[in-house]
């Protein structure tokens, strides 16, 4: 194994480990947070930490996995494309959902401490 | 450790199947229709994982867009346009129990028969061997002898468009008949002519910007899935349904008036006809060449056969193109994406315009 | 002595059978047309999984996809490939089945929308009473 | 085979995460909760697909992950359009 392969493998291992940790944390947050808007935090960890990071890690791992043959570059390229799509699309999807949920009042805002957006709407500074 | 290695895919398979059973049960008994649609989407994602672990990536590529994307989209549109809750008062208990019993008996019998039909050798399920037909296909999909081969490393595409091409042709025509049926139901209804306004229509500016960036990338991925259909998992159907996401994103995020700039319904029908013509042409191209040169040829002939020596080249300049498979995939891609564009445009017409037309007909 | 893998595979098989039962129950008993369409699509999907399960095989260490990774295969490669790849015939049938199933579902949704526009309800019992 | 053994250790964590998301999706009191959990579920599944692609040593099946990512986003868009008050086409 050449040095560059060794480095890629170690980075891949670390990234996949971080991904597993983030999955567990996000799953716990998803189940224990009180309402929709707080759960958005857990969703962020799930999308970026739990999915984007391990996909990059797997791509790096595949680059150094010589038993796969030449097709491993296909795997690495596909993995990077999927990761880029996820990086751009996941936050946008969460934003669209949160906006729609807030303005349609579909999500309950139960343990409510402060709602700055509502005050701004009442003052007329922000509108839909 | 190596035992665990072999065990994990089967473990994931069984857990996935059990979770999908729970979500199917909840989807059926749920009264809120939109939640039922979402539960069926969960079931679809898990079925996709099952297909993946059963090593059929072609099905995953076509199943995810269809069952996670397009079908929920259509059902969400339908639920928004009609009733949101299901009225379940008055279903008699005895009738449903009788029906449930009958269904259980029928399914058990048919499942047992299918299990028997698989285990020809009475080996434990799953057996270590496949059927003779499958072994023949696997052996000849890329072979030294062109007479018996489809010259494509992708055996699924080879079966779809070469070995069983006539089957696929008629199955595809069923799909286009369904699209024609939908067009016939929406006969005089047209997209209202309005100018697209950036601020007043569609969703938030962040969504619009991200979609503007992503649409070309999605199209590139779809085209590469379709054009590499004879080398890697994918093909015309898979690329077409992946590209259909761009049409739906344009309609939902911007508006139907923005999408109508690119796709008029009549243009889409025209492009679909071009795609279908390409399929017919690829099916009969050897026949035409044989007719002109006075040789024998078959329909859906890809490589030369024993008594019909005409065949398309399987590689050009060292690149494998597998004869007609490339033409089939390209035409099918065009036809599928335009078919779904038509259906989405028809579904997104505002309800007032539709009701006007229907009221005019009733009177 | 049954292998653990066979046991887990049988669990999958039975779970899909249960899915078929539940979805058929939904098709027959639930009154709303949209719910019937959802149940019908689940039924179709379960049947597809079933067909693919039949084409699965056991190989060491795990079966490969029915796609070659080289363009100039030697005869050893081909025999190795044919002894480990899964059955490619069920995917080819299911592939067209999925797309056609979607087109038929779309047509059914169009019919349901048209029914709602004409009758004002999607409850199948009320629609039957109106015409009866 | 070192790489594969390492992955054998980590796949169960991803499975536990996925099952937690499913619990929230099936329990979720409101519709946005369900959609958000399906989101996380889909992205976690995409990661799992990539991991399995290395694990089963079948590099060609990677394209499924790209398509899954795209369509989970599309499901988000549909649901937020459903929740908004506007007509679907506008």
Automatic annotation (TrEMBL), chain A:
Keyword Acetylation tagged: no
Highest taxon of the lineage: Archaea
Membrane recorded as keyword: yes
Keywords, in A-Z order: Membrane, Transmembrane, Transmembrane helix
Ranges that cross the membrane: 6-28, 40-65, 71-90
InterPro entries on file: PhaG_MnhG_YufB
GO molecular function, one term: sodium:proton antiporter activity
NCBIfam families xref list: CPA3_mnhG_phaG (TIGR01300)
Listed name of the protein: Cation:proton antiporter
Organism: Ignisphaera aggregans
Organism lineage string: Archaea, Thermoproteota, Thermoprotei, Desulfurococcales, Desulfurococcaceae
Automatic annotation (TrEMBL), chain C:
Broad class of where this protein is predominantly found: membrane
Keyword terms of this UniProt record: Cell membrane, Membrane, Transmembrane, Transmembrane helix
Pfam name, any one: Oxidored_q2
Transmembrane segments: 6-25, 92-113
Protein's membrane topology: Multi-pass membrane protein
Compartments in which it is found: Cell membrane
Highest taxon in the source lineage: Archaea
GO cellular component: plasma membrane
InterPro entries, per the entry: CPA3_antiporter_subunitC, NUOK/Mnh_C1-like
PANTHER family in the cross-refs: ANTIPORTER SUBUNIT MNHC2-RELATED
UniProt-recorded name of the protein: Na+/H+ antiporter subunit C
Source species of the chain: Ignisphaera aggregans
């Amino acid at each position: 194994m050449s040095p560059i392969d060794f480095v890629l493998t170690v980075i891949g291992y670390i990234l996949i480990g971080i991904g597993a940790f983030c999955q567990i944390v996000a799953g716990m947050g998803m189940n224990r947070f009180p309402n929709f808007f707080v759960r958005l935090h857990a969703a962020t960890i799930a999308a970026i930490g739990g999915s984007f990071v391990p996909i990059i890690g797997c791509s790096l791992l595949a680059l150094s996995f010589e038993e796969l043959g030449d097709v491993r570059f296909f795997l690495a390229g596909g993995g990077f494309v999927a990761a880029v799509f996820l990086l751009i699309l996941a936050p946008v999807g969460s934003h669209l959902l949160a906006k729609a949920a807030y303005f349609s009042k579909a999500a309950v805002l139960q343990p409510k401490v402060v709602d700055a957006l509502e005050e701004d709407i009442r003052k007329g500074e922000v509108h839909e | 450790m190596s035992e665990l290695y072999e065990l994990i895919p089967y473990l994931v398979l069984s857990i996935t199947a059990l979770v999908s059973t729970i979500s199917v049960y909840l989807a059926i008994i749920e009264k809120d229709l939109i939640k039922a649609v979402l539960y069926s989407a969960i079931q679809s994602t898990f079925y996709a994982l099952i297909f993946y672990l059963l090593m059929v990536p072609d099905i995953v590529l076509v199943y995810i867009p269809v069952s996670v994307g397009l079908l929920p989209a259509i059902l969400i549109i339908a639920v928004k346009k009609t009733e949101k809750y299901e009225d379940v008062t008055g279903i008699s208990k005895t009738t449903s129990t009788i029906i449930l019993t009958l269904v259980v008996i029928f399914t058990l019998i048919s499942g047992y028969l299918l299990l028997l039909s698989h285990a020809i050798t009475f080996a434990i399920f799953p057996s270590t061997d496949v059927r003779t037909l499958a072994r023949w296909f696997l052996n000849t999909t890329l072979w030294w002898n062109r007479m018996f081969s489809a010259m494509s490393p992708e055996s699924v595409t080879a079966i779809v468009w070469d070995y069983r091409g006539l089957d696929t042709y008629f199955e595809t025509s069923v799909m286009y008949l369904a699209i024609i049926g939908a067009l016939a139901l929406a006969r005089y209804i047209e997209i209202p002519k309005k100018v697209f306004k950036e601020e007043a229509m569609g969703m938030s500016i962040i969504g619009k910007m991200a979609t503007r960036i992503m649409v070309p990338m999605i199209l590139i991925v779809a085209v590469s899935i379709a054009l590499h259909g004879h080398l890697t998992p994918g093909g015309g159907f898979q690329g077409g349904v992946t590209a259909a996401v761009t049409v739906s994103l344009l309609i939902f995020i911007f508006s139907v008036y923005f999408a109508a700039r690119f796709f008029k319904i009549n243009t889409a029908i025209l492009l679909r006809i071009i795609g279908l013509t390409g399929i017919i042409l690829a099916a009969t191209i050897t026949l035409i060449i044989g007719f002109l040169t006075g040789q024998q040829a078959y329909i859906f002939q890809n490589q030369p056969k024993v008594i019909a020596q005409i065949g398309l080249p399987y590689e050009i300049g060292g690149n494998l193109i597998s004869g007609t498979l490339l033409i089939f995939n390209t035409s099918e891609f065009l036809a599928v994406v335009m078919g779904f564009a038509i259906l989405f445009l028809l579904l997104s017409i505002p309800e007032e315009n539709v009701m006007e037309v229907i009221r005019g007909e009733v009177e | 002595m049954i292998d653990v893998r066979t046991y887990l595979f049988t669990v999958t098989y039975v779970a899909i059978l249960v899915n078929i039962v539940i979805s058929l129950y939904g098709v027959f008993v639930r009154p709303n047309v949209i719910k019937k369409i959802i149940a019908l699509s689940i039924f179709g999907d379960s049947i597809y999984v079933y067909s693919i399960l039949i084409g699965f095989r056991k190989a060491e260490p795990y079966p490969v996809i029915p796609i070659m990774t080289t363009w100039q295969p030697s005869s050893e490669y081909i025999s190795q490939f044919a002894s480990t790849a899964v059955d490619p015939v069920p995917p080819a049938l299911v592939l067209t089945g999925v797309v056609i199933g979607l087109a038929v579902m779309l047509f059914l949704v169009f019919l349901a929308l048209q029914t709602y526009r004409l009758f004002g309800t999607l409850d199948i019992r009320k629609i039957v009473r109106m015409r009866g | 085979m070192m790489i594969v053994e390492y992955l054998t250790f980590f796949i169960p964590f991803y499975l536990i995460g996925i099952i937690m998301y499913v619990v929230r999706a099936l329990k979720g009191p409101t519709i946005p909760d369900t959609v958000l959990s399906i989101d996380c579920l889909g992205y976690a599944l995409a990661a799992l697909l990539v991991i399995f692609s290395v694990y089963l040593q079948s590099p060609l099946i990677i394209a499924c992950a790209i398509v899954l990512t795209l369509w989970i986003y599309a499901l988000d868009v549909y649901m937020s359009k459903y929740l908004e008050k506007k007509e679907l086409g506008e």
